[in-house]
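Hello support,

Our group uses your service weekly, and this is the first time we've seen a run hang past the timeout. The protein is Glucose-1-phosphate adenylyltransferase. I'm not sure whether the cause is the sequence or the server load. Input pasted verbatim:
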Amino acid sequence: MAKHDERTGHEWEANLRLRRTLALVLAGGRGSRLGALTDWHAKPGIPFAGKFRIIDFTLSNCINSGIRRVGVLTQYKAHSLIQHIQRGWGFLRGEFGEFIELLPAQQRTDGEAWYKGTADAVYQNLDIIRSHKPEFVLVLAGDHVYKMDYAKMLAHHMASGADTTVACLEVPLEEAKGFGVIAVDDDDSIIRFDEKPENPRPTPTDPTKALASMGIYIFNANFLYEQLLEDSETAGTEHDFGKNIIPRLVGKHRLVAHRFQDSCVMHDGATEHYWRDVGTLDAYWEANIDLTTITPSLNIYDDSWPIWTYQAQLPPAKFVFDNDERRGMAVDSMVSGGCIISGATVRRSLLYSNVRVNSYALVEDTVVLPNCDIGRHARLKKCIVDQGCTIPPGLVVGEDPVLDAQRFLRSDKGVTLITPDMLRNLGD
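Update from on-call engineer: The timeout came from a worker crash unrelated to the input. Re-ran successfully.
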């Protein structure tokens, strides 16, 4: 009986600390490295994995971890992102203290400025944050794809007695130049933090890798308020967590690194701690195409850690015509609801909702976003087709690199982005 009481007490304490946590999802960035793909949409709202948006992974991590008080901070061209959250994430019950609250940039402070950095975005909403009376504040980026149990990170934060805990993962040294790089002592206390260093410090155990910040932080709430107020009054700051807040705390306060492998949600047999910044055309294409393989690195079929989203009511995918010259088929591909493959061939590709591929067309190694129509005899290879594109009959992309670069946007690794504006300019 004593063991039962002890277990119940631990469960009660675990649930209590999650209820006392407020998650803030920073979702205001454009994601300029994605080029024209983000001309009209913020990066967190870009479609991913056939039916989801990038932000769905962070929000699903919150819900699956037991964190049900969430604020989403938006700024750049946020209409489609806000619409998606309103449609797909309104199932929480306010009367139980659960919510996903939209916090768009509103020039709420005396300076009457838009969000000037990640820390300033949180600072401008301090009155709202305080009104929720959190004990802990979990700061998250809304533009990465991964599955993580934030409850385990929170447990580590509390057990370590930290003022701030920073989630981190090991990355190759060359890649570490684009991250905040962390140095730790034997108990994973942070002793140095360098934002995007030219020469990253390797980890003590592997000279080929560095310990990189994931942009995920847990703060004791009152401590966070103090640091944001100090930052707001400091001259020359960029009001950014990675560039200003975290480096200033090193050596003065208790900062602890939380290793991603300790809270990464993995499926049976997986060996990779999956985390992707799909912030370039090549990375976005690779992460989507990987989902068409036999055993993808990211498991989106895991019932124990579902990815939630808004899902339009669409008919099943349809494949029509079956003769040697004109067969509607898709091989090693993912095809979403509302799609019609009409006498066309799709190989190693991912088709989002409401895509029509017309007769004699060929789509290979290509990501096609929602509401596209691919004309007869068109051939698309290694492309990203943006939302709402109508591909003219007979258009060939992916076979002539020079011509592709003249008409569309071609990446360093040979991925061609096609957008509606680019198609309209073909006749000019």
